[in-house]
Structure formats: structure tokens, C-alpha cells
Amino acid sequence: MNSLIEDCAVITAEHLKKAAPKEEDIDIKQFFGNYALDVIARCAFATRLDSHSDQTNEFVTKSKEVFNAPLTPQLILF
Fold it and tell me: Is-annotated flag, keyword Oxidoreductase (predicted)?
């Protein structure tokens, strides 16, 4: 599993290296959220994502819907 996480870290580092010369601000929450999503997809679902580049991937869009949904009392009590 360590090699899977390391592969995701390498991809994330490459995207960070591409963003560095531009000297633009990045949304760090989204950036590392993409990394976490890549790791979860790779380790738990054996799916190779590059959520940094492909925000239209169905796995990415559905997971954002789930994690950005408001907390309801039923969900909290679950």
C-alpha cells in the first residue's frame, strides 16, 4: 500500500512543481483534497485518478457532492 500512496504523492508533487513557476495562489484545501481523494481511490477502489487534472471525472464529481453536502440531523444521528 505504501507504493500506491507514494505514486499519488509523486503525481501531486509534479502538479505542485508545475504550479510553482506561475507564482499564483493555489487553493491548498482543494489541492491536498485531490491528493487524499487520489489515495483513497487507489487504495480502496483500485482506481487510478488524477483529480488534479481531471475535475470532470465521475468519481471526483460524486465524491465532492458527498463531502460538500450539508449535514442534516438524520446524518448526524446516524
Answer: yes
DSSP 69: S
Give the model confidence (pLDDT) of 51-61 as tens digits. 888 889 999 99
Give the Cβ contact number of residue 56 at 10 Å.
Answer: 7
Nearest to 51 by CA among 12, 7, 3: 12
The pLDDT tens digits of the residues spanning 12-35 come to 999 999 988 988 888 999 899 999
Range of the domain at 38: 2-77
Cα 32 from chain centroid? 6
What's the domain count of the chain? 1
Alpha-carbon distance of 38 to 40, in angstroms, equals: 6
